[in-house]
């Protein structure tokens, strides 16, 4: 039976468009390099400096841990991007020496269909996927190629996730990096827990990177939840989701990971190399420093691992 998508699902899908437009704005202002984001988002209105800086911290922090992961296992590994949206990480890695054995992206079929269409019509994207003699299979809003799979999937259904990962060639024996950026927080707590428990059990050598809202039980958090609700997005329940960073880490330990650490984005920002922060701060004047601090304290990066290979991953490594 086909899944029935609700109005809330459609609102969640729309957050992908917003995030991609924000990333394009920050890229065009020089916060980081991404030659591929322009294919996935139109040029929109300029975002506020605190938004641009927040996205830079998010992207930079994820890159730091991806680099640590690849340092430990080399290219014989796999990356699984949960709720991938229009993320361009696959293409950015292909432009480095860090291309991995297999890269699997999962999202709502409406998102993967559109991403497939964008890839198909842009040679610069397609040629990075298709090797000289390789084949690319595009069908039903999904894409299969040697080392890259883009699959429509309802992350709330563990059985469907299992089937899609198998179709994408996921291997339990390979070191695995799981990415979940602003995804789990929009699932019901029981559905998110079931997904995480299953993934922790499936991959004995794994790193999970989670970026999402936190500390939503205070007044500023209530404003954030109201803004989400006004757009039709189900607001995370602060009692079970969007917890303080230590609680987010404890939750992942309880779901089967060996180790977990979490930091709010203010701590992440302060941990970035000083020259990185200085360069970003020179790009735009920031009048609302208090607003940026509040935003950073309401987003968190959580890193959970299984296996001795990744036991020493750390924000300050």
Keywords:
317 residues; 45% helix; Ppm1/Ppm2/Tcmp; Rossmann fold; single chain; alpha/beta; 12 helices; transferase; 9-stranded mixed β-sheet
Structure description:
This is Leucine carboxyl methyltransferase 1. Belongs to the methyltransferase superfamily. LCMT family. S-adenosyl-L-methionine binds at residues 58, 83, 154-155, 181. The chain has helices spanning 7-28, 49-73, 89-94, 109-121, 123-129, 158-167, 189-202, 219-230, 245-254, 265-271, 274-283, 289-296; strands at 78-82, 102-107, 136-139, 142-145, 148-152, 176-181, 206-213, 259-264, 299-306. It is α/β, with parallel strands linked by helices and 317 residues long. It has a single domain (7-310), classed as 3-Layer(aba) Sandwich (Rossmann fold), CATH 3.40.50. It has a nine-stranded mixed β-sheet with strand order 3-4-5-2-1-6-7-9-8, sandwiched between helices.
């Amino acid at each position: 039976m086909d899944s029935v998508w609700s109005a809330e699902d459609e609102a969640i899908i729309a957050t992908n468009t917003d995030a991609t437009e924000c990333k394009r704005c920050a890229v065009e202002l020089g916060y980081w390099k991404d030659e591929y984001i322009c294919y996935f988002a139109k040029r929109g209105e300029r975002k506020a400096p605190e938004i641009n800086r927040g996205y830079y911290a998010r992207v930079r922090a994820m890159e730091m841990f991806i680099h640590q992961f690849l340092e430990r296992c080399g290219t014989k590994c796999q990356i699984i991007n949960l709720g991938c949206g229009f993320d361009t990480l696959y293409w950015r890695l292909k432009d480095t020496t860090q291309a991995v054995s297999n890269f699997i992206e999962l999202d709502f079929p409406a998102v993967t269909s559109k991403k497939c269409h964008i890839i198909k019509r842009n040679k610069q994207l397609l040629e990075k996927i298709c090797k000289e003699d390789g084949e690319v299979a595009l069908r039903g809003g999904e894409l299969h190629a040697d080392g890259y799979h883009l699959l429509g999937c309802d992350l709330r259904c563990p059985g469907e996730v299992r089937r899609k990962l198998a179709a994408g060639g996921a291997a339990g024996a390979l070191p695995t990096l799981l990415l979940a950026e602003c995804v789990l927080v929009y699932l019901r707590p029981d559905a998110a827990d079931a997904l995480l428990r299953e993934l922790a059990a499936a991959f004995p050598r794994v790193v999970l990177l989670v970026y999402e809202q936190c500390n939503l039980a205070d007044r500023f958090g209530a404003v954030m939840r109201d803004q989400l609700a006004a757009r039709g997005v189900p607001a995370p329940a602060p009692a079970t989701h969007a917890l303080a960073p230590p609680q987010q880490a404890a939750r992942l330990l309880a779901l089967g990971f060996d180790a977990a650490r979490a930091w709010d984005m203010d701590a992440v920002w302060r941990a970035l190399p000083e020259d990185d922060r200085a360069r970003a701060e020179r790009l735009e004047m920031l009048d609302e420093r208090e607003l940026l601090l509040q935003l950073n304290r309401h987003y968190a990066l959580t890193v959970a691992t299984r296996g001795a290979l990744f036991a020493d991953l750390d924000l300050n490594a």
